[in-house]
Amino acid sequence: MMYYGNFWGMDLIWWFVWMILLFWIFATPYDIPGQRKRKDNPLDILKKRFATGEITKEEYQERKNILVGDLTK
Q1: Contact by Cβ (8 Å): 46, 56
Q2: What's the CA gap between 20 and 31, in Å, rounded?
Q3: Backbone φ and ψ of 32, nearest 5°
Q4: DSSP string, 28-66
Q5: Residue 63: its pLDDT value, please?
Q6: Mean pLDDT per 10-residue segment, the chain (73 residues)
Q7: Distance between CA 34 and CA 51 in Å, rounded?
């Protein structure tokens, strides 16, 4: 006796599970919570603050010289 209630060898529940899995793989955003990200170093933070206008060019140059000087020691 054959069971004809399944869909191509898999029950309906398994098709549902596979569809959810495929949707999760291909439709999730790239920045997934808990994903490891590279932390910004102090020079990157300084560049962003200068780009947004939080600090002036003189402050940027002064702080950059301090950071670069610390990196070479």
Answers
A1: no
A2: 19
A3: -80, 135
A4: S-SS-TT---PPPPHHHHHHHHHHHTSS-HHHHHHHHHH
A5: 92
A6: 59 84 78 68 92 94 87 55
A7: 28
Handedness of CA 32, 34, 40, 42 (dihedral sign): positive
d(CA 51, CA 68) in angstroms, rounded, equals: 18
CB 46 within 8 A of CB 67: yes
Question: What's the whole-model pTM score?
Answer: 0.46
Token reading at 66? 């301090």
Token representation of residue 55: 């600090």
Tell me the C-alpha distance between 26 and 37, whole Å. 20
Residue entry with tokens 């933070």: 45
CA–CA separation, 42 vs 39, rounded Å?
A: 10
Q: What is the pLDDT of residue 27?
A: 77
